[in-house]
């Protein structure tokens, strides 16, 4: 069998001709067009491609995965929410994003290009990306911008607040969004010119397939440095960790039994020649590992959180994407048995 051809697809552009793979983010300030994946745990993959051109998404065979299992079942997730609420009451954190990872056996002959093409048709997203390089396959339909860079101008668009319709959003969602905006402002402030951090959009309503979100925009002008300094100051993304970030990371490490991998990390592209790039938060994303297809889902927890409502939010976020991967439509997550191990 011939080895699968490496490629990346993002923003209507197909990248082929793999020229280099490195774990050093300093390469993103060198030359060429790079596909980038940083796992939530901090493992960096930068892949430079020689040929980047406008093209349709490449096709490929896709076979539905087997039965899904979850790293946290409903009772464990609810208990985790209660632990976070206790930590909030004790002043340890103000907010934390509790996540779980779903896993299913890969279908026979399944090609990540086929899944990426399905997502592009069935769940189009502004920061979608499909990538295949040796040792890493990702198909992402992320709606959330972690970092966009154009020269020395940097922008982040954190999402907090999710519902089927705008009527589902609660005061808790706006409060959570504002908390994360403050965290992102502080993160960018570490590498920004003094006085340049601004919030041109706060808690704006955005519609995506099957969901609505509250989205804010934080913008800054870099004082110097490049991608390594920018990632060091802001990673992991604040919207998928919590506030204060260091305390939330410690708490989540205790509550989540498996690594998140590319989920909640960074997925995107950098054009080092033009000093432009866009990295999405790695949500609504599939990846392959050890013959398994994996997918993450989570919810932001505040003092006002209802534990079972937060569990249902994780189901809501996963449902449409799992339906696309299964090749079906209109089936509820519980009906397909995907929510519980």
UniProtKB/TrEMBL annotation:
Source species, domain of life: Bacteria
Ranges for domain Chorismate-utilising enzyme C-terminal: 74-317
One annotated GO molecular function: 4-amino-4-deoxychorismate synthase activity
Pfam families: Chorismate_bind
GO biological process: L-tryptophan biosynthetic process
Protein name per Swiss-Prot or TrEMBL: Anthranilate synthase component I family protein
């Amino acid at each position: 069998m011939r080895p699968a051809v490496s490629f990346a697809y993002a923003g209507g552009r197909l990248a082929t001709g793999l020229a280099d793979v490195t774990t050093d983010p300093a390469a993103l300030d060198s030359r060429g067009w790079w596909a980038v994946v940083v796992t939530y745990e901090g493992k960096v993959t930068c892949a430079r491609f020689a040929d980047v051109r406008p093209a349709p998404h490449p096709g490929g065979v896709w076979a539905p995965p087997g039965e899904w299992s979850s790293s946290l079942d409903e009772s464990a997730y609810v208990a985790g929410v209660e632990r976070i609420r206790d930590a909030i009451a004790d002043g340890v954190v103000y907010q934390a994003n509790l996540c779980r990872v779903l896993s299913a056996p890969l279908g026979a002959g399944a090609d990540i290009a086929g899944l990426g093409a399905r997502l592009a048709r069935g769940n189009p997203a502004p920061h979608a990306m499909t990538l295949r390089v040796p040792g890493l396959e990702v198909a992402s339909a992320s709606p959330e911008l972690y970092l966009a860079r154009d020269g020395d101008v940097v922008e982040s668009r954190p999402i907090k607040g999710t519902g089927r319709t705008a009527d589902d959003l609660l005061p808790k969602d706006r409060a959570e969004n504002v908390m994360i905006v403050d965290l992102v402002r502080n993160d960018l402030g570490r590498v920004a010119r003094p006085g340049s951090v601004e919030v041109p959009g706060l808690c704006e309503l955005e519609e995506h397939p099957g969901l609505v979100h509250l989205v804010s925009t934080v913008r800054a002008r870099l004082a110097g440095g490049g991608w390594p300094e920018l990632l060091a100051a802001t990673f992991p993304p604040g919207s998928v960790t919590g506030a204060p970030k260091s305390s939330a990371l410690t708490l989540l490490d205790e509550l989540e039994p498996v690594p998140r991998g590319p989920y909640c990390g960074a997925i995107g592209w950098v054009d080092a020649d033009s000093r432009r790039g866009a990295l999405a938060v790695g949500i609504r994303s599939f990846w392959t590992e050890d013959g398994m297809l994996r997918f993450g889902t989570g919810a932001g927890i505040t003092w006002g959180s209802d534990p079972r409502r937060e569990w249902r939010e994780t189901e809501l976020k996963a449902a449409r994407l799992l339906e696309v991967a299964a090749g079906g439509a209109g089936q509820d997550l519980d009906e397909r048995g995907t929510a519980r191990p």
